[in-house]
């Protein structure tokens, strides 16, 4: 009987390990999905930052072309 109990314990341990591995695999897949979502969000933020930078540069250029000559008393022709 002791031999049989030892086999059952080994089978239980094997099943528990299989469940643990399945849970870990599920968690890994969830982390991969979340990482992909974060990478997409980061790309969207980079695009937004590039657009804001581009608009700000255009705004600064516009200010230099229009406001500074007026402050200096220059007239554009």
List the helices and strands and how they pair.
Layout: H1 2-71
Mean pLDDT: 80
Report, as a whole number of angstroms, the end-to-end distance. Answer: 106 Å
User: Helical region count?
Assistant: 1
Ranges where pLDDT stays below 50 over 5 or more residues in a row are: 1-5
> What's the helix-strand series?
H
| Number of structural units classed as domains | 1
- What's the β-strand tally? 0
How helix-rich are the residues, as a percent range?
A: over 70%
Q: Give the CA-based shape.
A: rod-shaped
Q: In what range is the share of β-strand residues?
A: under 5%
Derived from helix and strand composition plus strand pairing, the structural class reads mainly alpha
The Cα radius of gyration reads 32 Å
Biggest beta-sheet profile: none
Characterise this structure.
It is a single chain. With 77 residues, the protein is mainly alpha-helical. It contains 1 helix and no strands. The protein has one helix at residues 2-71. The radius of gyration is 32 Å and the shape is rod-shaped. Residues 21-55 form a coiled coil. Keywords: Coiled coil.
Which descriptors apply to this entry?
disordered N terminus, coiled coil, 91% helix, mainly alpha, 77 residues, single chain
How is this structure best summarized?
The protein is an all-alpha fold and 77 residues long. It is built from 1 helix and no strands.
């Amino acid at each position: 009987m002791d031999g049989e109990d030892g086999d059952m314990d080994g089978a239980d341990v094997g099943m528990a390990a299989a469940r643990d591995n399945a849970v870990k695999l599920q968690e890994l897949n969830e982390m991969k999905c979340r990482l992909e979502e974060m990478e997409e969000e980061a790309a969207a933020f980079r695009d937004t930052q590039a657009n804001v930078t581009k608009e700000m540069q255009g705004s600064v250029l516009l200010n230099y072309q229009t406001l500074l000559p007026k402050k200096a008393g220059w007239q554009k022709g």
